[in-house]
Every structure is written in structure tokens, then in C-alpha cells.
Amino acid sequence: MVKRKTYAPVPGQHISGQANKPLSQPPHSLTSQQVLDELCSNSATGLRPEEVPQRLEQMGPNELEQKAGVQPVKIFVEQIFNAMTLVLLMALAASFGIQAWIPGGILAGIIILNIFIGFFQSLQAEKTIDSLRTLGTPTCNVFRGGETMTIQTAEIVPGDIVDLATGDSVPADIRLIEAVNLEADEALLTGESVPILKIPKLTFDAKTGPGDRLNVVFSSSIITKGRGRGIVFATGMFTEIGLIASALSSSGNEVKEHRTRDKRTLIHVVWDPVGSWLGEFLGLTVGTPLQKKLSQLFLSLFCFAIVCAIIVMGANEFNPSKDVIIYAITTAIGTIPVSLLLVLTLTMAAGTKKMLERHVIVRNLSSLEALGGVTNICSDKTGTITQGRMVTRKAWIPGCGTYSVETTSDVYNPTAGQVFFHASQPIDLAGLNAEKKQGALISPLEEVASKFSLQRYLNIASLANLASVEQSDSNSTDSGDWKVKGAPTDIAIEVFAGRFGLNRLELSQGQKAQWKHVAEYPFDSDVKKMTVIFHHVESNETHIFTKGAVERVLESCKFITFGNETHPLTSKTSRDIHLNMETLASQGLRVLALAHRVNGSIVHESEFAGNVVPDRQKFEQDLVFYGLIGIYDPPRPESLPSVRACHGAGIVIHMLTGDHPQTAQAIAVDVGILPSPEKLQSLPADVSGTIMMTAHEFDALTDEQIDGLTQLPLVVARCAPSTKVRMIDALHRRGRYVAMTGDGVNDSPSLKRADIGIAMGTGSDVAKESSDIILTDDNFASILSAIEEGRRIFDNIQKFIQHVLAANIGFVVTLLAGLAFKDENGVSVYQLTPVEIIWMLMGTGAFCETGLGFEKAVADILNRPPQNLKYGVFTPEFLVDMVVYGIIMAACVLGSFTVVIFGFNDGNLGSNCNNKYSEACDPVFRARATCFTTMTWIFLLFAWGLIDFRRSLFYMPKGFKLWASHLWGNQFLFWAVFGVFFTVFPVLYIPKLNHVVFQHTGIGWEWAVVFIDVGVFMSLSEAWKWIKRIYFRRQSGRWREGPTVEV
């Protein structure tokens, strides 16, 4: 089967909202007839069938561009061609070249182990982001040649007329021609938490964002209500979702390259792609800060290893003999932290398992350490900070008071949460603090039994409603769960009525039903209200129940209730109602009015049986106003404490949402992202003016103007996907390290552009595939768990990197200084053999370093700023420590070698001792064994010393027992130290293994030298920590335990 070509816009040239071939204005800025004319289509007949093939050829099929999948060969090659592996490969080639089979074989095993561990981990992480292709429906109804037909969505072309009905997934971006009560769920695209009512007759400014284009429906959005017809203007990669797909597959370099291609010189044309490839190849320009730092380290060590080998050869007059070359190989191996990548991978894998216990799935291992450096979190609102489900927050009954509902995570359960009552109206509560504003806690069932006005209000709320709320019976698999059906707004109001014991199904269905449904007038976009007619069984009266937009309901009202009394609705009381509505709206609530009256005559169902039904105006007049109800998408209960904890950890939260500015601001204040209005007034004007913006205002600024802002906005409302990406870019230009959370398709580009993408478990597949981390419980608090774990891993990475690099310095200093020790033939004799060094790095070091990776987090890990990305792991203190400890190690090793050779063997270095054992080489082999044992035990105790960078290993403020229990707490490290401690004995005394493989021999009196040298190392390292404590006390007046954090 031949794969069809996929057409895509030129990067940076296609404008959001435009057609495949741009029209004179974006379609939302034109009338539907103008769009029809410019696309050469006809609403009466649709496109002629013979036109379609030509348009399909010109515009391309209506499908998204498909990227290449995982490329195992490329991943495998990347594991081989990095600086560390290249050094080991060179050492391997040199070893085999001089037939040093034993060290060569060991090196080969290490290389293979590192390559395959890296390969399998990378292979798992490199999944192709292709779930966007599955979002559209396979077929749709199109009007062509005067007939409606069902076709594949891929065959849709610009100019097609498409019919839409409830439940349809929109096949392309469509400018509506006509619509009847048509609402579309665009939450995954725009972040809007409720379905959007579409109005085809309106036109909008060209710069209007996707969330406010009420005359357009977007590809992959869902029609939740009504029906409509429209003309396709954008297909495939030219749709809004196509622009998201482009952003997912592009880092932005293509746009930059396209815009500057003509301005580059020949040097840039040649060097830019080469430099970019080289930087990627060596890992210098891609990956997390630690990955980049390690790539730079390995590249530096690669060069240093070559220099060291040259120095060794030069010191021996470039003698090509086998023992000289082995010395050069030994020195080169001593520069490379061969265990580092293995330990790093194991630590990350263990961290991943621990994260899973805390409801966090890590898709990209490297993101774990990067979490420790996160400075800013950009979060979507709907479904991330909020619950993504509508609930009733406030209810006001004139003459009675205001009811407030406590937000819970179980929003559909009418028995969950508490209800509070305050006898004042909302406008009088506006100036009170939160506790006084809430009022007194009430029992809903007792309250409704004692207040007749509340009963009537709740009757309207429950009956002017099409939603149902039911609890599963005990026989079902989900016994006790609450099941809901209906529009989100209706569900929220029905759950509120259910808190007081009223349920529409119980009131109007069954043998004990008090009400009998007669007719309904659905919500209409013109009248903005819905009305139901019920017959009251007991009184034999017909009742009219209406709810809707406040201004429209008031137009139909003639009276108002105050408590149990009814009064005429005057202009003054109407103004009071509007003021109360504005007060509730300022709290981010969507406010509806409830009204009712008893009809003068009985209305029968038969009056609505024919094609002609009575005019709704007949019933929607002379109504009695009963109150207001405010609903919203509530914050998750854990959002406020999580935001506060993030602030305590030095992390700034930005909320980027597609919602209305008032709603966004209210939620942001509720969860602590924005200060309260009172505190906001006290901020400087240049901060308070930009702390909250709309996407239109933010996008109107140039990059230079954004960079000039004192404070980047903490809340941006009406966000398009491109706005979120632009915010992340602005933070990057300020040197910030950004995590982005989200759950919708609209979050996908920003999830990928962010340094760390965090998706919600119930979010879209696209968001998950674009992310590095997934929260399985959709809990914003789990982000804190992830950051805490990331910081712990960062601290521990710093510890085990210090452990191995200090040893590398010790090895190199020892071997370079040891060039002065020459035998009878003038050849330098090495103090540590290649196998001994590899054994210590991979055997001793790898176990201890893995143990350090399992160290617990310090108590105040979330009460300190993020790691400084300027330094990353390699802080100034870290680098000084590395050199000091390395020199101390080298001094102890060289000291033990010198004492054995020159103190007790008259400086006898034998002959050919780098190649094999002989009687003449016995002193050298004993000296090597002493050096090996000394360094092994120093290496072990050094791991315990690194549990804290400044505090003494022997610090016992609460006694020996607690000190010992602390060491025992990390059992992996405890047993690694004790287990490896005893491995020196078999490698010292087993025949052949000692002389042939390790090139040392058993020792006797030399044990005294070992114990003295280990004691000297511990004394000097403790003295160094003491000096550091004094220094940092003088610097800051106090010193903080644990790894240093650069602020």
C-alpha cells in the first residue's frame, strides 16, 4: 500500500484560525457567507463531487503528519559514541594490542554492561508521540452535490459542508453556518471546563483566541448538545490540533532556521548543522542539566586521559614496551569514573519504583534528578489545579440568606462536604474574612424542614433540571458510587438539591411522585433560559420552573420572594440582584437565576403533542424570582497546601488556563497562586499590573517587552497552546528550569517544550505521551512528592559522584606522581594495577555508590531553594571537596607504597614488575597490595563520610545507639561497606588470582601500614569538614546540614 503524502504548513507561516490557503481574514472574522464565497462553495448544494479530487490533491488529506517510530539502531549507536565509552574502547584496543588479555577482558565486560543498560533504558523512553492520530472519528456526514453522504474523515476537503449532531467528533476546523442549541466540549483543546455554546451569526476580531471563537468548531472537539451545519476551512496539519501536532514534533529550531536562512553567511551555513550535530552527538546541548554537565565532564576526562597517557609515555621516553603502555592504560582508566553511568541508572530505576509508590509514573529516568532544579511550575487549571467537574459553591435566597458549600474531592456525592449558612446577602459578605463570610455550619436536612423559602428554592433547582444523580445499589460492582447523567451545570445544581434531600427522579417518578412532568422548553441561545412545566399531584396545579442567565430571567419576573412573603420586583430590588450577581461572579462563579410561578390554568401534555407547541413566552412571564445559584469548577482540596509548599520550596507557580479571566483569578486566589485583592493593592504598580493577564494581552507583547517585565504573569487566562509555549520560552530566557503540568491536548506542546512535562493520569493520551512524568492519582500534591524525590536523588547523585571522582583524582595523582618510581630498566613502576583500579571502581565503588543513591531525604529538603542550575551538581564546594579528598587519598596511597619500598626494602623496585611476578618483584607486589588494601578501605569509609558533606561522621548528639541506627538505616550501604571490607582477603591470598590477575601478593607486617594510613585519611577528612564548618559559620552565621544548595 502506498502511503499518502501528508501536507503541512511552513513552520512559522501558518496563523492560528486560518484556512489551508489563507483567506482575506481568518474565518471567525468573516460571515459564513463570506467564507462560502472565498472557498468557492455553496450552502444549498455543497461542493460538486468532481471538485473534490482536485482539492484533495492541492490541500492534502485530512490527516495528521506521522513521524518515524523508535529507532533502536540509532539509540544503540548513541550508547557507544560518547566520551566515556570512547576512552574505555581506546584502552580496550591498547590492551588487546599488547596482548594484555586480563585487563582487556575486564574492560570489555564493563563496556558491554554500560552499553546494554543504557540501550534498554533509552529504548523504553523513546516512544513516538502518535496518539493524536486516533482522536478523530473515522467517518462523518458531508453534504455534496445536494446529497448527504457518509465519508472517511481523511477525505474531507476545505469547502465541504458538514452536518453535526450530538455526540459527533468534529472532523476538521469548521466555520458554522447554522446551529440549534449547539454546544461543543473543547476542554482538551482550550481548557474550558464547560461545553461552549456556539453562535454562527457572530464575527470576531482576527486576533481572538480559540476559546472565544464562538462561530467555529474545532477538529476533535465533541458536540455535546444540539445540531449544526458548517463549512470546512482547515484540514489536517492546518487545523488547531494540527498546529499542536506541529509543536509536538518541533523544538522551534525549524521556525528560526526558516526565518534566518537567507541572512546566514557561508560559514554559518556549513558550521551550524555540524556544530548542532556535534553538540547533540556528545550530549553537550541536549538533556537535563546533569546530563549536560556529565557530558562535559566525560569530554574533559577524555582529553585528560589522552594527556595523562602522553605524560606517562613521555616520562618513559616513549618506550613502546608492554609495561610502559600498560602504565599509560592504567593512568587513562584511573581518570574515568567507569561505575558512574551504571550507578546513576540503578539509582534512577530505584527512584522510579519509589515514585510509583507515591502515585507517580516516571517515563523519562533523567527527569528524576532534574526535578531537584525546578524553579517554576506552569500548570493548567482545569483538571489539574481544579477537579474538572462543576459544583455549586453559593446559593442566595432573598430574605433568607446565603448558603456556602465546602469543596470536596467527591463532587458528585451529595452527602460529602459541609454546608454553611449566613443570614446576609453576598454583597454584604464581600468585605468579611473567609471564616466570617462562610457563616455557621448547618444540617441540610434540618434546615430544609424549617424553612419554607428554601423548600421552594430547592424545588426549582431540582425540577428545572435535566440531570440525574443516583447511588449504585449494593448488588452492583461499584456499590455505593454516585452515578450522574446530564450537562455539567445541571449536575452541579442537582447535587446541591440532593444535599437537602431533594432528588428530581424521586420527586417526579414512581408511585410516590409529588410532581408529574408535563413539558419542557430547552435552553436556547437566544433566550438564555430553560423552563419546565410540572403538575403538582396533591394540589392539582400546574407549576412553571425556570432557570437561566440572570438578566434574562429577571426580564420574565414580576415579583420577588423575601422569606415567606412575595413582593413586586422594583428597579431597586433588580439593581440589588445584579449587585449580588456581580459579587458572586467576581468569585469566579457562573451565576444563574431561579424563578417560578403557579400557572392560572392546568396545562395538559396533549397541548405539546402536535408539531405546533405553545409559545414559551406564554409561560415565561410574570414569574417570581427566588434567588441566585453560583457554580464553578472547584480547586482540588490539596491544591492550596501544595501551592504553599511549593512557595516554601522556592518554586513559583504559574496558572495558564483557557478559562474566563474572572474565573481564573478567583481560583488562583483560592489556591494561593495570586495574593488576595487587599495584598495585591500593596504591591508595586509594575508588578500588580502584570501579575494577572489575558492571553490577548500577553501575546500582544514582543519578546523584548516580555523580558522587560519586572514580574512575569502568575496567571494567564484565555490561553491558546501557543501562549503556554511562549510563557515557557520567556521563563527559559530568564534562566528558569520549568515543569509544566496538564491533562489536555492543549497542554501537549507546552509539556514537551518544558524541561519536565507532568501529565495527569486521567488526561489525554497525547498529554501522557508528551510528558516525562505522569501522576496516576491526578493529585497536584503528588507533584510535591515528585519534587521531593527529585531533590533527594539530586543530593544522592552529588554524593556518589563525589565518591567516584575523588577516587579518580586519587588514582591519577598517585600514578602521575608515581612516575618517579623507576625500576632497574628505567621503566616507571605503577603503584596500582589496571585490574586493581577497575576492581575498586566497579566492585568496591559501585556497591557503595549505589548505597549512597538510597540515602533518605534530609528533613528540610522542601524548605530550601532549588539547586542552582549554573552549577548543577558541580557546586564550588563540591569541586573543592573533590580535589581535597582526592589529594588526601593519593597522599595515603603514595605514603603506604613509599614506606613499604623505601622504609623496609631499601628502594628495591625490581625489574619487569609491571608484567609478571618474580622474587625480585616481591617488595613491589607487597607494596601494591598495601596500596590496594589501603585505598579499598579508605574508599569504603569515605562512602559513610559522604552521608553528610559537613557534619562529622562521628557526630553523636543523641548517643551511640542512635548514631549506629542511622548507619543501619541504609542497609544497602551498610552491607556494601561490611561485605566489600572482607573481599580484600581472597584477592590478596588466593594463588594465581593475586599474582597473575591483580599483580600483588599477600602481606604480613604491612597491615600496620594499612591501619595507620586509613586512620590518617579519616583524621584528615574530619579535619577538612571541621574547617568547612568554621568557614560557613563565619560566612552566614549558621550552617545548614546536608548537601550545599546554591541560592
UniProtKB/TrEMBL annotation:
Its EC number is 7.2.2.3. It catalyses: Na(+)(in) + ATP + H2O = Na(+)(out) + ADP + phosphate + H(+); K(+)(in) + ATP + H2O = K(+)(out) + ADP + phosphate + H(+). Residues 26-100 form the Cation-transporting P-type ATPase N-terminal domain. It is an enzyme of class 7 (translocase). Residues 1-29 are annotated as: Disordered. Gene3D superfamilies: Calcium-transporting ATPase, cytoplasmic domain N, Calcium-transporting ATPase, cytoplasmic transduction domain A, Calcium-transporting ATPase, transmembrane domain. Its cofactor is Mg(2+). Residues 15-29 have a biased composition (Polar residues). It is found in: Cell membrane. The keyword Transmembrane applies. It is a multi-pass membrane protein. One of its GO terms (cellular component) is plasma membrane. The chain crosses the membrane at residues 80-98, 104-123, 297-318, 324-349, 800-821, 878-904, 924-947, 967-990, 1002-1024. One of its GO terms (biological process) is potassium ion transport. Belongs to the cation transport ATPase (P-type) (TC 3.A.3) family. Type IID subfamily. This is P-type Na(+) transporter. It comes from Fusarium oxysporum.
